[in-house]
């Protein structure tokens, strides 16, 4: 009887541990090599600057500037840069598949935003800008929680 309850409690605890670990993904930052970390930080700072420029250009109807900056974000795609084979292996070892998926999604969105800039479509630019911002928050709240503990995950 006691053994039965013990097993039940153990199973319950095990289940709770699984749930907790699948909800809170571990930060990737401690797993990055120094080189990857500095490459990523550099990329992030230029993404940040480009997003700010896009926001201003968008609200002033400077479509060409929206397109240029969005294209620049797209072209700086860290996974597409000329990383050495070793860097690439280090990156894949450090980040889970979902992180790569988020990064890919983000860069697809930047390509669409560049397109919306070229098409002079303000409504579409606004929508895509919002989706990209959601993407920043999603990645930071899930994988950079050690550096950005204040960012909460947002639901759809
Ligand atoms: C796929 C994941 C991912 C996405 C999407 C993402 N980031 Fe980041 N970001 C990171 C990681 C990881 C770091 C921490 C890098 C480190 O410290 O090694 C970071 C750090 C940063 C930093 C700090 C850079 C520094 O100097 O240390 C800024 C600013 C930033 N991100 C802005 C953005 C903005 C703006 C967006 C969206 C437009 C965005 N990020 C989208 C993963 C992401």
From TrEMBL:
Residues making up the signal peptide according to the UniProt record: 1-24
Listed Pfam families: Cytochrom_C_2
Domain of life: Bacteria
Taxonomic classification: Bacteria, Pseudomonadati, Pseudomonadota, Gammaproteobacteria, Pseudomonadales
Coiled coil: none
Keyword line: Signal
Protein name: Cytochrome C
InterPro entries, per the entry: Cyt_c/b562, Cyt_c_II
Keyword Kinase listed: no
């Amino acid at each position: 009887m006691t053994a039965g309850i013990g097993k039940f409690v153990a199973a319950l605890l095990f289940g709770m541990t699984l749930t907790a670990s699948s909800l809170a993904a571990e930060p990737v930052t401690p797993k990055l090599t120094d080189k990857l970390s500095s490459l990523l930080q550099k990329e992030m700072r230029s993404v940040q600057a480009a997003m700010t420029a896009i926001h201003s250009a968008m609200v002033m109807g400077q479509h060409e500037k929206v397109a240029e900056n969005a294209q620049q974000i797209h072209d700086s795609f860290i996974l597409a840069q000329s990383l050495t084979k070793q860097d690439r292996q280090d990156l894949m070892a450090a980040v889970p598949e979902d992180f790569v998926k988020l990064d890919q999604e983000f860069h697809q969105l930047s390509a669409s935003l560049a397109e919306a800039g070229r098409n002079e479509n303000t409504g579409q630019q606004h929508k895509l800008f919002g989706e990209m911002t959601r993407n920043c928050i999603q990645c930071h709240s899930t994988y950079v929680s050690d550096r950005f503990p204040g960012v909460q995950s947002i639901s759809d």
